[in-house]
Automatic annotation (TrEMBL):
Family: Belongs to the CdaR family.
Domain PucR C-terminal helix-turn-helix: 483-539
Highest taxon above the source species: Bacteria
Domain named Purine catabolism PurC-like: residues: 8-126
Residue ranges occupied by any CdaR GGDEF-like domain in the UniProt entry: 298-429
Protein name: Purine catabolism regulatory protein
Organism per entry: Amphibacillus marinus
A Pfam family assignment: PucR
Length: 546
């Protein structure tokens, strides 16, 4: 319930009062009343106030009269009530036109109107409304506190707030990821336009009248369908409470009061939850480090202890090692913790493999994110892992480019350390090659790179390259011709000239000319062992020079 221009006009004391302009602003809320006794009244009024005046202070000042209505509208007052008779006999036409143009209500009071009595009627209504509001606020506060004392978690709390408000609730973290909601929602069913969200929340200009800010399934929500409040503890922002307004008629009239009380307790809940999560992470990190360092002798003991962390740790297992491509170490670390806080990795993995979310655990380990996945025996394992990696890169795109190294299948706990080293080798090989884009790569697909990386003597490697294909490299450098590219395609196609010509989009005879030139430079392309050595040298050259 609120006091508006319309509700004031319906009061018995205002039965002789008429609205002569700004009819469209009749639903403007009134939060205070003022009586004009000085010319510079604008310094003494606030928005949503109703100003009572005889215009005595400015009646003989044409300039002040002309700017009176525009200035009140600029101050966002609810309206003005003018008493006629003693100082002005009628409201000037230009004032009426100014008010109409701004939907700013002008009320006309009769000659015998008592301003004190009229203002008292409004103040009494405001007092009653505020008393009722205070009682409502206290009731909501008691209900929410009682819920917390009963041990409600974040999800239960959000469901309860949803029932009170009449709208669906979503809790977002600072990265605008959904951390809790009053309805079932999947990661791929919920998106936030981060730019529009921040522009609107920070009160910046938005070019569109009602741009799409949040999308749930196929339903879009603009600023007219959203009520958003920041959740903070002191100066630290913890996230946002978002109310989705699907049916305005079903929403509580005191939405702001409910949300105000809810975010106070949500801040407590989120801080408590973050503290618990961090402690659990620390214990889990230590547990996994102990496993990797062979401090457990029994595989059965490890599997049993993992249950303490709500982890279905079992075999076969796979390690996904996720590496941020950001150069700055502090930014990488921040990215890892944002990804961990989002909880997206276990949800995505569970969705791809159709397993419980408890089959996957993710920790920050030695400067990267290590994801251990308990998988079933199946023939499509590599395909699913590839899909999982690609989906992770797509869903985590907001965090920048990511590299994902995938280990071989792990069947025994003593193989975990080796599998981790192999997944790590994928990143080291890509780092050696200067890869800066996102990638998903299996250890099993590294081929000869597994061996190349283990040889630290690069001079020896370059000597082998020079011995096998050095003449080709020098020839290309001197004549700006890429015979090495031709050789690479030829190796890829197992020496098949026609297939190589087609793939390079050149004439068959042109390819034969290039092949003959390669032979003139000393390459033995027709002898199996020699051809294999040349192929190894080409791969080695690519490895060292990318």
């Amino acid at each position: 319930m609120s006091v508006t221009i319309e509700s004031v006009l319906n009061m018995e004391a205002f039965s002789d009062v008429a609205i002569i302009a700004g009819q469209k602003g009749i639903n403007r809320q009134i939060q205070n009343v003022y009586v004009m006794e000085v010319p510079d009244i604008f310094s003494y009024v606030d928005q949503h106030g109703l100003l009572f005046t005889t215009l005595y202070p400015i009646a003989n000042n044409n300039e002040a009269m002309m700017s009176f209505i525009p200035e009140l509208a600029k101050q966002q007052l609810a309206g003005v009530a003018i008493k006629l008779g003693r100082y002005i006999s009628e409201v000037p036409k230009y004032m009426i036109e100014q008010a109409e143009a701004r939907d700013f209500p002008i009320l006309v009071l009769p000659n015998d109107a008592n301003l004190s009595l009229l203002t008292n009627h409004i103040l009494t209504a405001l007092l009653g409304m505020k008393t009722s509001m205070l009682e409502f606020r206290e009731t909501i506060s008691q209900q929410l506190h009682a819920l917390l004392l009963q041990g409600a978690d974040l999800v239960t709390f959000v469901h309860y707030v949803s029932q009170i408000t009449g709208g669906n609730i979503v809790i977002l973290d600072n990265s605008l990821n959904c951390t809790a909601s009053s309805f079932d929602i999947q990661d791929d069913e919920f998106t936030v336009d981060r730019e529009q969200f921040q522009q609107w929340f920070n009160s910046s200009n938005i070019t569109e009248n009602n741009p799409s800010i949040i999308k749930v399934n196929q339903t879009t929500y603009g600023k007219a369908e959203l009520f958003i409040q920041s959740i903070a503890a002191g100066t630290k922002r913890l996230g946002y409470l978002v109310v989705l307004i699907d049916e305005p008629g079903k929403m509580t009239k005191h939405l702001n009061v409910v949300v105000e009380q809810a975010i106070i307790l949500l801040a407590f809940l989120l801080q408590t939850e973050q503290t618990i999560i961090q402690k659990e992470r620390n214990y889990l990190d230590n547990f996994i480090r102990d496993i990797m360092n062979d401090r457990y002798q029994s595989q059965a003991e490890i599997i049993e202890k993992a249950k303490v962390f709500r982890w279905n740790f079992n075999f076969p297992n796979i390690i996904l090692l996720i590496k941020s491509q950001k150069k700055d170490s502090s930014k990488r670390l921040s990215t890892y913790y944002k990804i961990l806080d989002s909880g997206k990795i276990p949800r995505i993995i569970a969705g791809v493999f159709d397993v419980p979310i408890q089959n996957c655990k993710v920790i920050h380990y030695n400067g990267e994110l290590m994801c251990l996945i308990s998988v079933a025996f199946e023939t499509r394992l590599q395909q699913r892992l590839k899909t999982a990696g690609e989906r992770l890169i797509a869903r985590l795109a907001d965090y920048g480019q990511l590299g994902i190294g995938i280990s071989e299948v792990i069947y025994q706990v003593h193989q975990l350390k080796t599998a981790y080293d192999h997944a790590l080798l994928v990143h080291r090989v890509n780092d050696q090659q200067g890869t800066s884009e996102s990638y998903v790569q299996f250890y099993d697909d590294l081929g000869l790179y597994k061996l190349f990386y283990l040889i630290n003597d690069h001079a020896l490697l370059n000597e082998f390259i020079d011995e096998k294909i050095g003449e080709v490299i020098h020839y290309d450098q001197q004549r700006d011709i890429n015979l090495l590219e031709t050789l690479t395609y030829l190796i890829k196609n197992n020496g098949n000239l026609q297939k190589t010509a087609d793939e390079m989009f050149i004439h068959y005879n042109s390819l034969r000319y290039r092949v003959n030139k390669l032979k003139e430079l000393g390459l033995e392309l027709d002898e199996g062992h020699k051809f294999t050595e040349i192929a190894v040298a080409c791969q080695l050259f690519q490895y060292l020079n990318n």
